[in-house]
Design brief:
Layout: E1 2-9, H1 14-28, E2 32-39, E3 47-49, H2 54-69, H3 87-91, E4 94-97, H4 107-114, E5 119-122, H5 163-175, E6 179-183, H6 186-194, E7 202-205, H7 220-227, E8 235-243, H8 252-260, E9 268-275, E10 287-288, H9 297-306, E11 309-312, H10 321-328, E12 333-336, E13 351-354, H11 359-371, H12 373-390, H13 393-410
């Protein structure tokens, strides 16, 4: 069995983490797995950048940027013109897509690949079924054609409203494709079932998996000292995002409003992690220990371990790795009840779900957890238990392999 993946990155971002986890999980099972990415960070020889030529990559970038302004989203990416003839694609039994909306993969390439190979698409977001955006917050126009887009700036943005034309282009491309969908959350699964673009396509729910040996319980105070936080008595709230300030989709506006309600509390502090995390300084009345984005595994699990509660205030999200990883480290969660988050957070068992767009609800839940040590202890224990029972890496990989095997059998391919 030969599997080839496409991902924007092999390390940076939640989708990239999932792509690498599945890629490595398949290799550990003795299955041939290779990956094309836009930007490579690892030393894995089975991962290649679509283009390693700096000049061509710049051409990709500026070509994509210009065409986006005219609403031609991913219409022409120089690096992917002849990629369909690459030996890795020709040798593959199945092509698996993760994020392809990164300016490295043209939609014409999708059409060329779809003529040759079965495609499995793991939905990192809803971009595959919308006109142009990845997260259609408070908008359901993607269900019937994406006419008159209310937010052209929503990532990935377009300058002219061609969302209906882009939606129709996707619909026509999918009709002839041998396409199977993997949804990592009930939210993406239900959206896929509602979408006319995925009419009659097989849709499988396969939750993200976590390596519980990597993400494990570490003593809180030892973790704090490792980070340079010499404070054992106070309780800490952790917030992690690739961009940790002025990021509405990740809920930084609601989080700011909620943290302001703590007023001058001397018994708690805040740990923001991500790009621009330092901008939280002097914005809230509690102490702030900011850390910039760092993709190092040891740093990530150390920050989870240093806190008492993890806050995930996203306005819309799939099933964030932040929640799963921190739960595996034995932490309770406070999150907004949106997207696929309720798949893993059992309210009042391993965390608390807050009402959307309600800073008071978020504040009350944070305050309750921080004020109840025994509740935090039980919720943290339940977090770890839930991950081990239902969200293990082995369970995820086994489910995906079964999907591959069924596709190979149905298409009379050689393993």
């Amino acid at each position: 069995m030969h599997i080839l993946h496409f991902s924007t990155s092999d390390k940076i971002g939640g989708s990239a983490k999932s792509a690498s986890r599945i890629h490595n999980g398949l290799k550990n099972k003795g299955i041939s797995s290779k990956m094309f990415v836009c930007d490579k960070s690892s030393s894995d020889n089975d991962i290649k950048e679509v283009s390693r030529n700096i000049i061509i990559k710049k051409f990709d970038y500026y070509s994509n940027k210009l065409l986006q302004k005219f609403g031609i989203q991913y219409g022409f990416i120089p690096s992917s013109i002849n990629l369909h003839n690459h030996p890795w694609i020709l040798d593959a039994d199945i092509i698996q897509l993760f994020n392809i909306h990164g300016g490295y993969f043209s939609f014409n390439l999708f059409n060329k690949i779809a003529r040759k190979k079965p495609i499995v698409w793991r939905l990192s977001d809803l971009w595959p079924i919308t006109g142009h955006c990845a997260y259609p917050v408070n908008c359901d126009k993607w269900i019937d054609g994406c006419n008159s887009c209310p937010d052209l700036k929503s990532y990935p943005s377009i300058g002219i409203d061609t969302s209906n034309l882009l939606w129709e282009k996707k619909k026509n491309s999918y009709l002839a494709a041998n396409l199977t969908i993997i949804a990592p959350s009930s939210w993406t699964r239900d959206a896929a079932k509602l979408s006319p673009l995925f009419n009659r396509k097989k849709i499988h729910l396969v939750h993200n998996g976590i390596d519980t040996d990597q993400f494990k319980i570490i003593d809180r105070n030892k973790a704090r000292k490792k980070l340079g936080i010499f404070d054992e008595s106070r309780k800490a709230i952790l917030f992690c995002a690739h961009v940790a300030f002025d990021n509405p989709r990740k809920g930084t506006d609601i989080l700011l409003e909620a943290l302001l309600k703590f007023k001058k509390r001397s018994d708690i502090f805040f740990i923001p992690v991500g790009i621009n995390s330092h901008k939280w300084l002097k914005k809230i009345p509690i102490d702030v220990y900011p850390f910039e984005f760092n993709n190092d595994l040891d740093f990530i699990r150390t920050t989870y371990s240093a806190c008492d509660v993890v806050c995930v205030p996203s306005s819309l999200d799939n099933l964030p790795n932040t929640i799963l990883e921190s739960m595996s480290c034995g932490k309770p969660i406070v999150a907004i009840d949106t997207g696929g988050i309720k798949d893993v957070i059992n309210h009042n068992v391993n965390g608390l779900l807050s009402s959307p767009n309600d800073a008071k609800s978020l504040f009350n839940n944070l305050d309750f957890i921080l004020s109840n040590e025994e509740w935090r202890r039980k919720a943290g224990f339940n977090s770890r238990r839930i991950i081990k029972e239902n969200f293990s890496k082995d369970k995820e990989i086994s489910s995906i392999i079964k999907i591959y095997e069924n596709i190979i059998q149905e298409n009379n391919l050689t393993k």
